[in-house]
């Protein structure tokens, strides 16, 4: 089943600015549907489902981009705690219809993720970034850590925002 941790957050499209609220069940379903569409159906990284045990952890933060005024969920990202006090960001996805504004929507999702983990006192925040997306993250001031590594069967670049402490390598996935 789908996880329903209590700490769900949403953001508006960049044209409407950012805000925080808990996700209604319909938005949560859309959140998981977008993740499945990207990481199972389109990219084939996972088979059948990409929902993991960490999605059920009440500390995991699931964030959506909501296009206003329509209220449609158009993007996702999640943040979760890992070993040694390291927090991870992942499953960043923006729906195809809003790809032209990916920089705006994707940047808004990443900024909200950074804001929420920093509010929790997190000092080390990282993500395993698919290689075609590294430039996007560099554009929003994320830094490479080491060389690309295999993650879920594909090459990924470990990265962190400029404010984050650099973790000791190797960094476990979770």
Taking Cα atoms only, what radius of gyration do you get, to the nearest Å? 15 Å
Instruction: State the separation between the terminal residues, measured CA to CA.
Output: 20 Å
Shape: globular
Q: Give the low-confidence spans.
A: 1-22
Mean pLDDT: 76
SS-derived structural category: alpha+beta
Write the layout of secondary structure elements.
Layout: E1 8-12, H1 25-42, E2 61-67, E3 72-81, E4 86-94, H2 102-119, E5 124-130, H3 134-139, E6 142-144, E7 149-151, E8 154-161
Parallel strand pairs: 1-2, 4-5
Antiparallel strand pairs: 2-3, 3-4, 5-8, 6-8, 7-8
Describe the structure.
The protein is built from three helices and eight strands. With 174 residues, the chain is an alpha+beta fold. Strands 1, 2, 3, 4, 5, 6, 7 and 8 form an eight-stranded mixed beta sheet that branches.
List keywords for this structure.
disordered N terminus; alpha+beta; 174 residues; 8 strands; globular
What would a concise description of this structure say?
The N terminus is likely disordered. The protein contains 3 helices and 8 strands, in the order βαβββαβαβββ.
């Amino acid at each position: 089943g789908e996880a329903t941790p209590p700490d769900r957050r949403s953001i508006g499209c960049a044209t409407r600015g950012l805000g925080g609220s808990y996700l209604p069940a319909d938005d949560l379903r859309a959140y998981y549907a977008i993740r499945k569409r990207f990481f199972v159906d389109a990219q084939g990284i996972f088979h059948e489902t990409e929902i993991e045990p960490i999605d059920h952890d009440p500390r995991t933060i699931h964030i959506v981009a909501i296009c206003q005024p329509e209220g449609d969920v158009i993007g996702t990202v999640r943040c979760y705690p890992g070993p040694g006090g390291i927090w991870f960001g992942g499953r960043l996805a923006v729906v195809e219809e809003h790809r032209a504004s990916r920089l705006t929507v994707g940047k808004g999702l990443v900024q909200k993720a950074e804001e929420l983990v920093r509010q929790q006192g997190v000092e080390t925040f990282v993500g395993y970034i698919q290689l075609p997306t590294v430039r996007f993250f560099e554009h929003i001031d994320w830094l490479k850590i080491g060389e690309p590594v295999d993650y879920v069967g594909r090459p990924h670049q470990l990265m962190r925002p400029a404010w984050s402490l650099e973790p000791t390598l190797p960094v476990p996935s979770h």
